[in-house]
């Protein structure tokens, strides 16, 4: 009985997330300054890190939504809870043959992607002070 209830509640939560209106970030495209918090530890792939952010602001204005960013792997590791400030080109998630990548990301609350920011820095972690990771493209 408990398993059936858990499955039903999980399905209802999934349906609610699919039917919910996308967050404001979903409508913003182009180059912007973004501040957000890393949702979970980044996934490292060789020279690159894939980071999912819970966005707090765009160009200084409060905005919500999820953003997937690809960065060069930093010297100092990034972690869930790190607050980043980036200058990025916000784009729609790309279409991939035989896979609905935009829908996949949307199911995780991510409505925009960005790759290789012009500038990024770690501003803090939860209540801790500033960290040293970051870089400027040049």
> What is the ordering of alpha helices and beta strands?
HEEEEEEHEEE
Which percent range fits the helix content? 10-25%
**Morphology call:** globular
Radius of gyration: 16 Å
Largest sheet: 9 strands, mixed
Content of β-strand: 35-45%
Figure out the total of helices: 2
Instruction: Please mark out the parts with pLDDT under 50 across 5 or more consecutive residues, or reply none.
Output: 128-132
What do these coordinates show?
- The chain starts with a helix and ends with a strand.
- It contains two helices and nine strands.
- Strand 8 and strand 9 form a beta hairpin.
- It has 138 residues and is α+β, with helices and mostly antiparallel strands.
- The longest helix is centred in the first third of the chain and has 18 residues.
- Strands 1, 2, 3, 4, 5, 6, 7, 8 and 9 form a nine-stranded mixed β-sheet that branches.
- 17% of the residues lie in helices and 41% in strands.
List the main descriptive attributes of the protein structure presented here.
9 strands; 9-stranded mixed sheet; alpha+beta; about 140 residues; 2 helices; globular
Write the layout of secondary structure elements.
Layout: H1 2-19, E1 30-38, E2 43-45, E3 48-58, E4 61-62, E5 66-72, E6 82-90, H2 101-106, E7 110-115, E8 119-125, E9 134-136
How would you summarize what this structure contains?
With 138 residues, the protein is of the alpha+beta class. It has helices at 2-19, 101-106; strands spanning 30-38, 43-45, 48-58, 61-62, 66-72, 82-90, 110-115, 119-125, 134-136. It has two helices and nine strands; from the N terminus they run αββββββαβββ.
